[in-house]
């Protein structure tokens, strides 16, 4: 029996200032940071914008790791500061190291994520699912004991994440959603990297509509 729970922290920050494809002043984004655990220990999923807010949300709990869904700036820009403050390690899929380096230079994450890697926290499992498409190293984290999947920017309420970059792939993200996420029970809650939750049952019937619209 687990007493694990999922907590949502919304952080806000500005990204992309001065970068190609962004307004000169950058974009202000709200990000979901997910905490999985109980009163004693926790895993942090994504670390965007505000390390102090993440540290406050964790409080006195032991942090077993910071798991990153992908390498985009808004999901990782507070990771190093938060990891140092919380005395923990950072995990990222190696296919997104080129994006990590744009934000953090040559200060590498501590460990690599791999498909089906399993983490344990508060008596429940966190299962890594490699879901390329939004980025080559995008992953989701399935929590079968909690009937939930944390999808980063792979799947949102209303469809897949953006694939407008030259390293992204719309066919790949559809394949990832179909092969990794839509094999989960229909009752599974979907908690994305931005915005509100949805479910596998709600999104599953829309696959052909997404395929037809092409985004």
Describe what you observe in this structure:
This protein is α/β, with parallel strands linked by helices and 215 residues long. The chain has a single domain (5-213), classed as 4-Layer Sandwich (Metallo-beta-lactamase, Chain A), CATH 3.60.15.10. 24% of the residues lie in helices and 32% in strands. It is built from seven helices and 14 strands. The chain has helices at 51-58, 73-76, 79-86, 97-104, 170-181, 200-203, 207-213; strands spanning 5-15, 27-37, 41-45, 62-67, 90-92, 111-112, 118-121, 124-130, 139-143, 148-152, 155-156, 159-160, 189-192, 198-199. The strands form three sheets. The protein has a six-stranded mixed β-sheet with strand order 1-2-3-4-5-6. A six-stranded mixed β-sheet has the order 7-8-9-10-13-14. α1 (51-58) packs parallel to α3 (79-86). The mean pLDDT is 96.
* CATH secondary-structure class: Alpha Beta
Task: Enumerate the spans where pLDDT stays under 50 for 5 or more consecutive residues.
Answer: none
How far apart, in Å, are the first and last alpha carbons? 41 Å
Enumerate how many helices there are, as a single number: 7
- From the alpha carbons, calculate the radius of gyration and give it in angstroms: 16 Å
Q: Could you say how many structural domains there are in total? A: 1
* Category from helices, strands and their pairing: alpha/beta
> CATH topology, what is it called?
Metallo-beta-lactamase, Chain A
Question: What is the number of E strands?
Answer: 14
What is the element string, with H for helices and E for strands? EEEHEHHEHEEEEEEEHEEHH
> So, CATH architecture?
4-Layer Sandwich
InterPro entries: MBL_Glyoxalase_II (IPR051453), Metallo-B-lactamas (IPR001279), RibonucZ/Hydroxyglut_hydro (IPR036866)
Pfam family, one: Lactamase_B
Keywords: Hydrolase
Organism: Leucobacter exalbidus
């Amino acid at each position: 029996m687990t007493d694990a729970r999922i907590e949502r922290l919304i952080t806000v920050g500005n990204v992309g200032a001065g970068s190609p494809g962004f307004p000169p002043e950058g974009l202000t984004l709200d990000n979901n940071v997910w905490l999985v655990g109980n009163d004693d220990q926790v895993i942090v999923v994504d670390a965007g914008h505000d390390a102090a807010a993440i540290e406050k949300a964790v409080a006195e709990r032991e942090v077993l790791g910071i798991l990153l869904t992908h390498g985009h700036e808004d999901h990782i820009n507070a990771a190093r500061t938060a990891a140092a403050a919380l005395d923990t390690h950072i995990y990222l899929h190696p296919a997104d190291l080129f994006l990590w380096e744009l934000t953090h230079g040559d200060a590498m994450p501590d460990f690599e994520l791999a498909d089906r890697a399993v983490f344990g926290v508060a008596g429940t499992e966190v299962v890594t699912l490699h879901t390329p498409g939004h980025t080559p190293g995008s992953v989701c984290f399935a929590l079968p004991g909690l009937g939930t999947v944390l999808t980063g920017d792979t799947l949102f309420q209303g469809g897949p994440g953006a694939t407008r970059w030259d390293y992204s792939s719309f066919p790949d993200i559809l394949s990832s959603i179909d092969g990794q996420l839509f094999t989960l029970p229909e009752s599974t809650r979907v908690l994305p990297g931005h915005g509100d939750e949805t479910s596998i049952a709600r999104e599953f019937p829309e696959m052909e509509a997404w395929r037809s619209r092409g985004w």
